[in-house]
Write a structure and sequence with these properties.
The complex is a heterodimer.
Chain A (H helix, E strand, L loop, with lengths): L7 H9 L2 H23 L4 H17 L1 H14 L3 E5 L2 H14 L4 E4 L3 H5 L2 H7 L3 E4 L2 H9 L15 H10 L10 H18 L2 E4 L3 E3 L4 E6 L3 H7 L3 E7 L3 E2 L5 H12 L7 E6 L6 E7 L3 H5 L15 H5 L3 H4 L10 H12 L16 H5 L6 H15 L4 H13 L2 H14 L10 H5 L11 H7 L1
Parallel strand pairs in A: 1-10, 2-3, 2-4, 4-7, 5-8, 7-10
Antiparallel strand pairs in A: 5-6, 6-9
Helix pairs in contact in A: 3-12, 16-18
Chain B lengths: L1 H17 L21 H14 L3 E5 L4 H11 L4 E4 L13 E4 L5 H5 L3 E4 L3 E3 L4 E4 L16 E7 L3 E2 L2 H13 L4 E4 L4 E2 L7 E2 L6 E7 L4
Parallel strand pairs in B: 1-12, 2-3, 2-4, 4-7, 5-8, 7-12
Antiparallel strand pairs in B: 5-6, 6-9, 10-11
Classes of the chains: A alpha/beta, B alpha/beta.
Chain lengths: ~450, ~220
């Protein structure tokens, strides 16, 4: 996976200047947040579902090798082919091989963060294979060479007139109306031709069931059903953390995911299939690409519980202002701030764990109870220790030494009283007091008062 | 060569996982609702309300009225040629319409039809969901996907209250390797400025006829 090209503060400063982005984002995050709160509020057992969701994913990760083998066996027994990929290049090579072996120079693709993560479309293009994005928003971004700013509504930073103009230039010459209804109709007509002709479909997956080998996708538009049903050949790319142990576990996630994600009681379409179905050829690619590295960190591994609902984005005071591009990754927002640094290595995304006020709203809405603030703090520690020899570490060492002796501590208190008028107002530390008041030091410490009695 | 790389990848990924000390994990707490508490009448009312919330057309009818209602629904919507799965009960089939039985129609042929009539395997009241599983009256997946109008007949006794009750029923379907599709309202997108548009790729119109139990 690609590391962010620039630091979060630098990217955020640029994104904050984009007024349209901020307006659209505010509207989107507020609306989805309210819808979610309504449908979560009507569930008397929501907290029980969250506890179950967290426990199921913890159990999965504790026995991941067993569940992977069980899943592989079940898929193979049902006539599917299972491929393993250590990294993006291996996964992309499998998809390209399958497409080539069927003589396809075009594949239809449903929205999938995992295939975005491995940059599948670019890799296929190098093999002369064109991948058409069929999710409405993903199609818009693909036609314009743009990229996603929100997990759920990727083109939320674009307005209807921009999209109308884009369609007029590309798939619907002469289109005049910018009514979303007419724009959706234009996309429907353009993509229907593609669906009816496609020989190879590519999908991600929301869940894979180890017990039965069943794969599950949830969606709204029906493009996922098109991609997984009509082509004779289907390739599904699945992160190894997307498994659930048993079919019954779906009863938990199919309640948690739609309510957390779109704020609906259920999304329009959920598809489940097991192995080669209705005469299709099925290939499943099990992808590592940094996931085992996340698994090795006993605090950070809970990031692998994530079911990609995007509820944490919508409640985050940082994300709802900067938008997704500032995170420089296909995984934006609070979950991205803990997942991206772990996937690409903390040294390659050291600013992301700091892209948070630690308010904890993300933890409260997370359907699988990922304690994002704790993981952020844990990663901050790792980011700081990765930068050995810096002034910050020397300063902290000095403070530790000062606090560890009673006389030293008393002397420091007296010094602080004297230095009060100019301390933290000069040099690099002035950045701290530029926007904050420094609490005045007491005229007398408790220790001094006690000794006088 | 590719096969060799593949098995090397498999061994290496499993090896990486096994090198990590196993975290302790206990039993899964399943204190959420797994069985409904509503009466049959309340369950029916809830299903009706929740399907309507998705802007689907829902009608409660007597079991003897299925064929006649199908005919009038199609007349209202100007649909004349409709696909049906081979296992659609004979007494449901309306006479005044051209019914095309699906014996493996290709996608283009499906695209040329006005709609499709099916039954379902189960339905969920709390979420307003109908569940298709390639049973004889459900049809295969493409049948309920390509045509623009889907009319689904649900028997009152097929409705369960909660998602876990449906998943329990569907376990054997998954073991039999039959595909399953949950349908909750018509196809929809909110991708442009978050304004909802019904109907992108799936059927833009969903009609659910709930046949009451005779008492």
């Amino acid at each position: 996976m690609r590391a962010p090209a620039e630091s979060f503060p630098a990217a955020a400063r640029r994104e904050l200047a984009n007024v349209q982005l901020r307006t659209n984002l505010r509207k989107a995050t507020d609306t989805i947040r309210d819808k979610r709160a309504r449908v979560v509020g009507e569930m008397p057992d929501w907290e029980d579902l969250r506890d179950a969701g967290r426990a199921i994913k913890a159990d999965l990760l504790a026995h991941l090798d067993d569940y992977l083998l069980q899943f592989e066996e079940a898929v193979q027994a049902a006539g599917g082919h299972v491929h393993w990929a250590r990294d993006a290049a291996e996964a992309n090579a499998v998809v390209a091989d399958v497409a080539r072996s069927h003589g396809a120079d075009e594949v239809v693709k449903m929205k999938s963060l995992t295939t975005d993560e491995i940059e599948l479309n670019d890799a296929l293009a190098e093999h002369g294979i064109c991948a058409t994005e069929t999710d409405f928003a993903e199609l818009i971004l693909q036609l314009d060479g743009d990229w996603s700013s929100h997990i759920l509504v990727p083109a939320i930073h674009r307005n209807r007139t921009e999209i109308r103009d884009l369609f007029a230039r590309t798939i619907a010459p002469g289109i005049v109306s910018d009514d979303p209804r007419d724009l959706a109709e234009a996309a429907r007509l353009y993509l229907r031709e593609k669906f009816l002709a496609a020989r190879v479909g590519v999908s991600g997956a929301n869940f894979g069931v180890a017990e039965t080998g069943t794969i599950c996708i949830v969606e709204s538009e029906g493009n996922g059903r098109m991609c997984t049903t009509l082509p004779r050949v289907l390739v599904t790319v699945l992160g190894i953390e997307k498994l659930v142990p048993t079919f019954a576990d779906l009863e938990v996630f199919l309640q948690l995911l739609p309510r957390s994600s779109t704020g609906e009681r259920m999304n329009p379409y959920t598809s489940l299939w097991t192995g080669a179905t209705e005469g299709q050829e099925l290939h499943v690619v099990l992808l590592d690409n940094g996931r085992t590295r996340v698994l090795a960190d006993d605090v950070g591994r809970q990031a692998l519980h994530c079911i990609r609902c995007s509820a944490c984005l919508n409640v985050c005071p940082v994300y709802s202002r900067t938008g997704g591009h500032a995170y420089g990754s296909v995984y934006p927002g609070p979950i991205g701030a803990i997942l991206t640094p772990q996937l690409v290595g903390i040294e390659n995304a050291a600013s992301l764990p700091f892209a948070s006020s630690l308010c904890g709203a993300c933890y409260e809405v997370c359907p699988v109870k990922i304690d994002i603030p704790s993981v952020l703090l844990h990663l901050r520690t790792r980011a700081v220790s990765a930068r050995a020899g810096r002034a910050e570490r020397a300063g902290m060492g000095l403070v530790a030494w000062m606090f560890s002796g009673r006389r030293r501590f008393g002397a420091a208190q007296r010094l602080a009283r004297l230095a009060q008028p100019f301390a933290l107002r000069l040099g690099p530390l002035a950045a701290w007091t530029r926007t904050r008041d420094l609490k005045p030091m007491p005229k007398e410490t408790f220790g001094e008062w006690w000794r006088k009695r | 060569m590719v096969a060799q790389t593949m098995s090397a990848a498999r061994e290496e990924i499993l090896g990486r996982v096994r090198a990590i000390p196993r975290a302790p994990s206990g039993p899964i707490p399943r204190s959420y609702r797994r069985a409904g508490t509503l009466s049959a009448r309340e369950r029916l009312a809830l299903f009706h309300e929740r399907v309507s919330d998705y802007r689907a057309d829902v009608r409660l009818i007597e079991p003897g009225e299925i064929a006649r209602t199908l005919e009038s629904v199609c007349a209202e919507r100007g649909a004349r040629r409709l696909a049906i799965p081979p296992g659609l009960p004979a007494e449901w089939r309306p006479r005044g319409l051209e019914l095309v039985q699906d014996d493996g129609l290709d996608p283009a042929a499906l695209d040329a039809l006005d709609g499709v009539i099916t039954g379902c395997t189960t339905a969920i009241a709390e979420t307003g969901t109908i569940v298709l599983s390639s049973a004889p009256a459900d049809g295969r997946r493409a049948l309920t996907l390509v045509p623009d109008l889907h009319i689904c007949v649900v028997g009152e006794t097929q409705i369960v209250e909660l998602v876990p009750e449906a998943i329990l029923l569907l376990h054997d379907v998954a073991v039999d390797r039959r595909p399953i599709t949950f349908v909750s309202g018509p196809s929809a997108t909110s991708d442009i400025e978050l304004s909802r548009v019904e109907g992108v790729h799936g059927p833009r119109t969903l009609v659910v006829l709930v046949a009451k139990e005779t008492t």
